[in-house]
Amino acid sequence: MSSRPLESPQLADAQVLLDRLLTEHKSGFALPREFQTDPGLYQLDLERIWRRGWLFAGHSCEVKRPGDYVVFDVDTDSIIVMRGDDGVIHALHNTCRHRGMKLCAAASGHVARLVCPYHQWSYSRHGTLLTCGGMDADGDLDRRDFNLRGVHAREVGGLIFVCLADDPIPFDGAGHALGAHLTPQGLERARVAAARSYEVRANWKLVWENNRECWHCEVGHPQYVRANYDTAPIDDAALKREIAAQARATSARLEAHGLVIDHREAGMVPFPMPEQWWSINRTPLIPGWVSESMDGRPVAPLMGAYPTHDVGTLRMRTMPNFWNH
Ligand code: FES
Ligand SMILES: [Fe+2]
Question: Which pLDDT tens digit goes with each residue over 31-48?
Answer without folding.
Answer: 999 999 999 999 999 999
